[in-house]
Task: structure prediction
Amino acid sequence: MKLEALEDCAYEYEYHHHLQGLIYDLIKDSEYSYLHDKKGYKFFCFSNIFPAEDLKKGDKRTLIVSSPDDLFIERLREVFLMNKRNNKKVKVGRMNFAIDNISLLKSRLDGRDHSLITGTPIVVRMQRDRCKEYGITLDKDYDYVYWRKEYPLTAFIKQIEDNLTKKYIEFYNENPNSDVFPLIQMLTFRKQISTRLHFEEGTQIVIGTTWEFYFRGLSDNQIKLLEFGIDAGFGEMNSRGFGFMNIKDK
Result:
């Protein structure tokens, strides 16, 4: 979605709840209305509104929504087009936009070698028993902790691959082929980010990290799983806009 700022405004960095609510509002009269109350994976993700900087009236911005479910994307497109015809504005917190243009993108991997970069931070949560398995000592009796840069890299990779497998099984109702793992080969840490999220029970600080991933000599089954991950998002809280992935081949 190409958006045009309707007024000068400071950028809304705590956009996650607002954009998630926007998507739920767009699908509320469709067969996907159940997603609002569904527990667990919802199989969509979204970028931030970029570039992420303060707005001047008339500035152009972009928002991308991704999903492995083509019909879900088509429903969003239909409602956005209807809203564009009706001159309905897009409100994200304090930011107000007109809809400038809508297009469909296909993020497919051609060839065996690829690079991906995080568009939004990846969130990985580890349960207490998994922390012991990874050799992570907790200073308090937490039920879970967010992966952060001082923890073992093997824990991050294992959690990402396990999460991707669970989402794949639920979406396709089948296991990924046994030859896909290990999937993550090389990666470069960029930075760690803490974000304040608003939940019904209150505000919570979420820890996420940004990365660049490098894949070489991928098999057909690995490409299929990786394409699914690009569409559904890496890690957790994808339906709140975390783990949105960009292909960085060119």
The mean pLDDT is 94. The two ends are 22 Å apart (CA to CA). The first strand starts at residue 2 and ends at 5. The chain has two domains: 2-101, 114-247.
